[in-house]
Amino acid sequence: MARELKLAGLSPRMLPKGNGVICDIGVGDRVIALRADLDALPLPDTKDVPYRSTVENVTHACGHDVHTTVLLGTGLALAQLAERNELPGRVRLLFQPAEENMPSGAPEVIAAGGLRDVAAIYALHCAPLLPAGLVGVRSGPFTAAADKIEVRVTGRGGHTARPHLTADLVHALGRVVVDVPSLLDRRVDARAGVSMVWGAIHAGDAANTIPGEGTVRGTVRVLNRDAWREVPNLLTELVHSVVAGTGAEVEVKYTRGVPPVVNDRLATAIVAGAAGAALGPERVVEAEISMGGEDFSFYLEQVPGTMIRLGCGIPGSDQKFDIHQSAFDVDERSIGYGVRVMVHTALAALSAGAF
């Protein structure tokens, strides 16, 4: 990637850890950033194609290889425009690591100066449920914040024949699992888009023994920024109130993940117009809201911007792929569509002068 950019006469610079690239194209005080994420997932690649993964149990099951290829192609096209003095400003390419991990790579890019002088930022994500050739855009909430919660209860265990002599931790955990999400639904505005789901629970091993410790872990997803900021304290309060009558001790560990992606209205209008100019207005559709998390949100906490969905579904295929699946595949024509959209977006954003 960096090699290809250098061959095009550009001056890419590596991130301090050597795991990502920042590259400016053109000149001027006005900077528009375009971001692509680099990492893969720890899954086997089960598809039989020439471009299948060459690393065992690692594959691009979220389309990040497409994102990276699109941004590289966009950079090469913009470099040609800059050589002809046809680029009305500066475009910054951000090849970001670790979108799938926590801590994620976006704060690392920001700390390395990725957003310095940036007026707006744009990104795309593969959408296998959209056919190749379509682009999904949406203003406002786009993806959810994604946090984790762990509740640990402790107390005096004992024989299941005499629960009154114990703190019945399994019962306490049951109340947490059932009551806390229900109470949360009634303490937060339904329009905030809060979803709490437990994914793991453990307490004891024997059927006739009340354990002395138990845990339950889950995720909390929120579409509204204000609600996201309030949820940790509210959930801690609810857990303590639910467990209070059981005699158990309780500890709540709430771990922040990523904020919600909330697309800027003007930035979304610009990319919608650019996509229409690149592919035709009939190929621009409204994107659905996703409860998945995306660390592009960290950039949007700093500057306005928007993320779009790039249709990569294979027309006529009986298989309906989704991301994070070993068999995930794309229609490679989506790469060309993505390049055209991002080039038009960069030019439109540089010319808009609205940010």
UniProtKB/TrEMBL annotation:
Q: Which GO terms describe its molecular function?
A: hydrolase activity; metal ion binding
SUPFAM superfamilies linked: Bacterial exopeptidase dimerisation domain (SSF55031), Zn-dependent exopeptidases (SSF53187)
| Pfam families, alphabetized | M20_dimer, Peptidase_M20
Q: Which residues form the Peptidase M20 dimerisation domain?
A: 149-239
Stretches that traverse the bilayer = none
Protein origin, superkingdom: Bacteria
Q: Which cofactor does it need?
A: Mn(2+)
Keywords annotated in UniProt: Manganese, Metal-binding
Cofactor note (record): The Mn(2+) ion enhances activity.
**InterPro entries xref list:** Amidohydrolase, Bact_exopeptidase_dim_dom, Peptidase_M20, Peptidase_M20_dimer
Residues recorded as binding Mn(2+), renumbered to this chain, are: 62, 64, 100, 125, 324
UniProt xrefs under NCBIfam families: amidohydrolases
Q: What is this protein called?
A: N-acyl-L-amino acid amidohydrolase
